[in-house]
Amino acid sequence: MRRKVVVLNGPNLNLLGTRQPDIYGHETLADVERACRALGAELGVAIDFHQSNREYEIIDWIHAAREDAGAIVINPAAFTHTSVAILDALAAFDGLVFEVHISNVHKREAFRHHSYVSGRADGVIAGFGTQGYLLALRRAAALLAPAPAA
Ligand code: CA2
What we know:
By secondary structure, the protein is α/β, with parallel strands linked by helices. It has a single domain (4-143), classed as 3-Layer(aba) Sandwich (Rossmann fold). The chain has 5 helices and 5 strands. The protein has helices spanning 21-24, 29-43, 55-68, 84-91, 131-143; strands at 4-9, 46-51, 71-75, 96-101, 123-126. Helix 3 packs parallel to helix 4 (84-91). The longest helix is centred in the first third of the chain and has 15 residues, at 29-43. Bound molecules: ligand CA2. The site of ligand CA2 has 17 residues, from loops.
């Protein structure tokens, strides 16, 4: 498997750090991207990082990952609970899939308890704040084939 990880973020996560810090913390998505890139460099993993409020863009990035990525780390945000289309796209990806939620969705409203994406995910992290992205990256790096010797 290739040592590239695609990190995908769903709708409204561009607002991270601007509202509801009690639920989502104070970090912005740019902070999360910076932390993912720094850890990727440490682990020898290339990082693609995207956010979109549009379902089709997330699907297109999942399709593109089929070409050269070994893993997808995805916080589908509200699409978690609604999107069979994202589940189907992930099912067509042969690598590892890790689902991340900043908040513990199981402690929140009942409609957040079901995830379509979990039906495909190799692992799910919820309630670890933005650190969940880094835990998922570490897991992906541990499972992907080692980088070839220089
Ligand atoms: O806990 C998570 O990471 C969620 O995926 C976040 C989604 C929510 O719909 C899921 O149930 C759980 C919401 C993302 C919106 O994020 C915002 C952050 C700050 C301000 C406004 C929205």
